[in-house]
C-alpha cells in the first residue's frame, strides 16, 4: 500500500514537472518571436551590434547652391563625416539661380523653416535636426545619429532599361509602428559645374571650376514630405514599386542613384538607405 502511494505520488509529480516544462518552453519560444517588439535594443552610436537588428543610418539633407560661396562649408563637413562612417545617406537639394535647382523645395522649406527665409547654407540631420554651426567641427552631431541596432530596415532593387526606371523599396519592421511615411528620391552624381567658395576649405579656391556635385536631388518619387505607410507591424515586410521614365532633368542616366527613408509622426527620419541604379540590396541585418 505504502509503495503504491509513493509510486502514485511520483507519477503525479512527474506529470506536474513535465507540464511546467512544456509551459516554460512555450513561453520561451513565444517570447523569442516577440523579444524585438517588446525590448528595444541600445541604438546609441557605440552600442555593439546585436543579432537580428538592422544597421541605422543618418540622413543628411544639404540645402545648397552652386552660387552659394558658404555652402562649401557644409560640403566639407559631409566629406569629413564620410571619412568617419559608411552610415551617412546624403541628399543635395539645390535652390536658387542654379542649373540643378529643385523646383519642389517649397514644402521642405515650410517644414524646416516655416517662419524664416531659406538663407543658404542650411543643413538638416534626419530631416529635422539642425546641424550645429560650424558643421565641420561638429561632425559628431551626424555620427551620433548612426548605430548598429534599429528595428526598421530598408533595401532597394532597381533596373534602368529602355529609358524606364523600375524600383522596389522593401521595408521590414521588427516592432509595431504607426504614423510612418516613406520618402523616395532620385539623385544624380558626377555633375561637373563651377562652385563658388568663400571659405578656406578646398584650398580657398574661388570658384572651384571643376567641382563635382554629387547626391543632387532630381526627382521625388513620393510626396516630398512622404507617402503614408500602412501595415507597419512587427514581423511584416512591405514593398513599394515605382515605375517612371528617366526624368528629363537627368544629364547622364548611368549616374542615377536612389535614396529611401522612413519618417515618424515628428517628420524625423528613423532610418535611410542609398542605392546605385541596377543594384539589388539585401536588408542590412546583423548576423
Automatic annotation (TrEMBL):
InterPro entries: Ig-like_fold (IPR013783), Omp28 (IPR021615), Thioredoxin-like_sf (IPR036249)
Signal peptide: none
SUPFAM superfamilies linked: Thioredoxin-like
Domain of life: Bacteria
Annotated protein name in UniProt: Outer membrane protein Omp28
Lineage of producing organism: Bacteria, Pseudomonadati, Bacteroidota, Flavobacteriia, Flavobacteriales
Amino acid at each position: 500500500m505504502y509503495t503504491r502511494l509513493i509510486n502514485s505520488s511520483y507519477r503525479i509529480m512527474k506529470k506536474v514537472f513535465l507540464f511546467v516544462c512544456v509551459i516554460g518552453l512555450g513561453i520561451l519560444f513565444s517570447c523569442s518571436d516577440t523579444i524585438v517588439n517588446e525590448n528595444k535594443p541600445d541604438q546609441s552610436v557605440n552600442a555593439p551590434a546585436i543579432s537580428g537588428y538592422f544597421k541605422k543610418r543618418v540622413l543628411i539633407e544639404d540645402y545648397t547652391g552652386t552660387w552659394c560661396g558658404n555652402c562649401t562649408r557644409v560640403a566639407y563637413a559631409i566629406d569629413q563625416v564620410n571619412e568617419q562612417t559608411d552610415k551617412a545617406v546624403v541628399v543635395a537639394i539645390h535652390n536658387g539661380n542654379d542649373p540643378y535647382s529643385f523646383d519642389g523645395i517649397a514644402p521642405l522649406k515650410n517644414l524646416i523653416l516655416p517662419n524664416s527665409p531659406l538663407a543658404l547654407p542650411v543643413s538638416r540631420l534626419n530631416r529635422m535636426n539642425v546641424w550645429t554651426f560650424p558643421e565641420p567641427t561638429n561632425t559628431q552631431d551626424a555620427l551620433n545619429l548612426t548605430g548598429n541596432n534599429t528595428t526598421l530596415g530598408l533595401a532597394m532593387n532597381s533596373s534602368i532599361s529602355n529609358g524606364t526606371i523600375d524600383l522596389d523599396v522593401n521595408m521590414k519592421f521588427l516592432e509595431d509602428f504607426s504614423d510612418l511615411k516613406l520618402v523616395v528620391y532620385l539623385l544624380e552624381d558626377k555633375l561637373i559645374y563651377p562652385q563658388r567658395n568663400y571659405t578656406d576649405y578646398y584650398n580657398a579656391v574661388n570658384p572651384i571650376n571643376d567641382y563635382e556635385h554629387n547626391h543632387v536631388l532630381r526627382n521625388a518619387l513620393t510626396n516630398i514630405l512622404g507617402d503614408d505607410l500602412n501595415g507597419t507591424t512587427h514581423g511584416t515586410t512591405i514593398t513599394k514599386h515605382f515605375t517612371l521614365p528617366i526624368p528629363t532633368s537627368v544629364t547622364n542616366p548611368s549616374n542615377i542613384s536612389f535614396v529611401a527613408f522612413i519618417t515618424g509622426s515628428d517628420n524625423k527620419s528613423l532610418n535611410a538607405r542609398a542605392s546605385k541604379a541596377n543594384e539589388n540590396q539585401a536588408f542590412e541585418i546583423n548576423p
